[in-house]
Amino acid sequence: MKLFLDTANIEEIKKVNEMGLLNGVTTNPTIIAKQLTNTKSEDLFKETKKILKEICSISEVPVLAEPISQECENIVEESIELSEISSQIVAKIPLTQEGLKAVKILKERNIKTALTLIFSLKQALIAAISGVEYICPFVGRLDDIGEKGIELIYNIVKVYKVYNFKTKIIVASVRNIEHIINSAIYGADAVTVPYKLIDELINHPLTQKGIEKFLEDWSKLSNR
Ligand code: E4P
């Protein structure tokens, strides 16, 4: 399973990359907006492209970037402009009729695409039929409305295997370690993880306790 980082914060991306854990980066307008709160520039698309360019320069991994427009023609135009930043860019488009039309055109132009805001198996099925490269099913937001988001991942993996669909599943809206563990158990291709969960993924109390015991025993030896 691959680990994508769900952030546009350069320092966070660098830190995860330094540990050799970065397989990709996902962004969305909310994530980009967080980095642009203090910008003085009026040209927000230009500023967005600057951030994405910097992200792409950190490591040669896929970087998912979302156009703001919702009409096919404009989605295509924005996605092309985003893809000109780097061949790493994947245009991340909400699953709508306009979005599907855009994916078809972008695929014909060899621009990589992801369909996002996926909340049901029927949507995941439609996305796979479209031949999109990635889907982003949102588990946390399903939990928020009282559903078991992770069950969607189990079902998507099962159906995609039956039909040997090539579309890759990036589990999104990940809120806790259970989401990550269950995504791995069910066989999702990737999870996109908020930076705040990275420490929790790495640490175990017995690892720290073990280090302390090793150091204590070693210092006894050197203080004989
Ligand atoms: C992927 O990049 C998604 O947009 C993101 O994981 C959504 O997360 P949220 O539901 O916590 O906003």
Reconstruct the topology from this structure.
Layout: E1 2-6, H1 10-18, E2 24-26, H2 29-35, H3 44-58, E3 63-65, H4 72-83, E4 89-94, H5 97-108, E5 113-118, H6 121-130, E6 134-137, H7 139-144, H8 149-163, E7 168-171, H9 177-186, E8 190-193, H10 198-202, H11 205-222
Parallel strand pairs: 1-2, 1-8, 2-3, 3-4, 4-5, 5-6, 6-7, 7-8
This protein binds erythose-4-phosphate.
Question: Would you mind describing this structure in some detail?
Answer:
The model has no long low-confidence stretch (mean pLDDT 97). The protein has helices at 10-18, 29-35, 44-58, 72-83, 97-108, 121-130, 139-144, 149-163, 177-186, 198-202, 205-222; strands spanning 2-6, 24-26, 63-65, 89-94, 113-118, 134-137, 168-171, 190-193. Helix 9 links the parallel strand 7 and strand 8. The N and C termini lie far apart (47 Å). The chain is an alpha/beta fold and 224 residues long. It is globular. It has 11 helices and 8 strands. Bound molecules: erythose-4-phosphate (E4P). Erythose-4-phosphate (E4P) binds at residues 6, 26, 28, 136, 138, 140-141, 172-173, 192.
